[in-house]
Amino acid sequence: GRPGPKRRKSRGRRSAGLAWTKRNISWKVKTYPREARLSRETIRALTHYALKVWSEAAPLTFHEVGGPSADVSVEFLRLDHQDGYPFDGPGGMVAHAFFPGDPQRAGHVHFDSDEDWTFRSPGDYGTDLFAVAVHEFGHSLGLAHSPSKRSIMRPYYQGPVGDPLQYQLQADDRVDIQRLYGSRVLHSTEKPEASSLLPDPPSLPRDFPALRSEKEFPDRCSSSLDAVAQIRGETFFFKGQYFWRLTHGRHLTSLRPALSAAFWRGLPRSLGKVDAVYERHTDHRILFFSGPLYWVFKDNGVEEGYPRPVTDFGLPQGGVDAAFSWPHDRKTYFFKGGLQWSYDEAAGRMDEGSPTPTALGGQLPTPVDDMLSGSDGEVYAFKGRQYWKLEWHSLKLEPGYPRSIARDWLDCTGELSPPPSAPTGAKLQPDWRGPPLEVERCVCPS
Amino acid sequence: RPVPTPADESGEVVAWLTQYGYLPLADPVTGQLQTWEAVTSAIRVMQRFAGIPETGIPDDATLALIRMPRCSLPDVLPEKLPERKN
What we know:
The structure holds two protein chains of two kinds. Chain A starts with 23 loop residues before the first strand and ends in a 38-residue tail after the last helix. Chain A has helices spanning 40-55, 129-140, 171-181, 260-263, 405-408, and strands at residues 24-29, 61-64, 72-77, 93-97, 108-112, 117-118, 127-128, 227-231, 234-239, 242-246, 258-259, 276-279, 286-290, 293-298, 301-302, 308-309, 322-326, 331-336, 339-344, 349-350, 356-357, 370-373, 379-383, 386-390, 403-404. Chain A is 11% helix and 23% strand. In chain A, helix 1 crosses helix 2. Chain A has five helices and 25 strands. Chain B is mainly α. In chain B, 41% of the residues lie in helices and 2% in strands. Chain B has three helices and one strand.
């Protein structure tokens, strides 16, 4: 058949380049234009937002990587760069990207370094990098050119498409990408982030998130914790969207917490908090639990197919308060309210009789914030700003507890500020959780 | 009998149509030129794809489109070229 409008409605018309089999896709800007009015940070941020446009329409997650290999690699090149698509200086051909089905070049995205790349500039001046990037990433994901005048996949550059934080795909483009990857089911519907990654126009530069002001972070000396985990012998304390990390020698790697989603690549940035984290002893994967979902990480990159519902474990849909992997019996224990579940990781199923009333009942306030199994098998329970140590074989409380988490773990000295009392109208502590994770409720078919 | 394309006035158009997949490459062995009918047909397909009037000739609207900045990938992918009848 001939290409043209008569084929517009045909199924899969624009899925010319196959699709990625993975759903968690890494990216990197490998080279930058030599002479550009845009800073490197702006180019990275625009790349992030251009990919996000697609991940908001389909169950895809994109994460930036620092190493040499990335699934999607962005380069600014000029003239003939040996891929059969030479650039031609300003104007003419501005960019191209290769389809996922291309065996050698899948994920390669090339922008003409000789263009005058702009952002938030009048439509008749320069070439808007965000608009072109959204288009090119469409190719990277498998979409061909579209004749639709409203489609971002129209081959002609038609000027800026507006604010990257607000931009959304047109219905045709949304349908086309969902034909390849399905719709966002059981995935977070990330909304524009509260604090933009994008810098303001050049006259008013603003810092990248790594340089956020101190007051935006939770205070380790006065915060309670959401989750605590021992991973590869190091201890991680999670609060809201952040975490602190203690080395094997129990020294904080930084007094300031790190953004969880920036380190644990594939964790949604909109995730307000994690409920529990543990390292699975059978394969050393790291599991994150938040509300009804859980993620499995290999090292600090999320595995394909996640998040999944916690009901996979036989846990209630609402999620868990705490979890820890206990080397003593090689089981994983989950806690919710006054109940505990014992999960056999080797067999991949919940032990018979679960849940049972928690063995911590009467010893500790419930629910606990999280549990931790230390390097020597000892078990700690955390609640509020205090922790308890339990005998490793009997889970009986050791004397001398509770003690202060801030003082014993988080390198806080001197007079610690009192725990916040119950709110009486005014909010006493900032909410570090960020926007709530919105999850489409549905039944997963597989 | 097909008429050869007048090379002087349509070189840019033919190159563009070939580059973006509307015309197959001219045979490098025989050096055979594109026929004007094939070019006219390709222009029509291009005009239809672009949403401009289908005149079949490189009019002002068509030339303006050909000179617009754009993505380097073809609009018509190789496997989707219309089959040529012998």
